[in-house]
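Sample pair:
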Amino acid sequence: MGDPRRLQECILELESRGFSRAVDTVERFQFDVLNYRSFPSEHWRRIRTTNLIERVNKELKPIYRSIGAFPNDASLLRIAGAILMDINQEWITSRRYLSDVSEIPSADTGTEITA
């Protein structure tokens, strides 16, 4: 399904069989599917899971609980931003979430994204 023509053929086939809800779903997510499939297959498992988001939430939760109430929205954003910057720095310097790929094609624009 990485080819837009094949995806369109799939949509037409579903329409001809009367699966209108499936057609709506495929049409709604076709660009997401194309972007997902433009990455190397080794990356697909990491892209489709929410493990990274769950890890970030796991690190944020104890800090929020220890502080309790925040005086205003800005203070909450400052601490969340600082924590996220720290997590980002850790990932940049010590871990590789995705294998080292210098350029990944973008299905939306046809340009390449430099990693």
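The chain has five helices and two strands.
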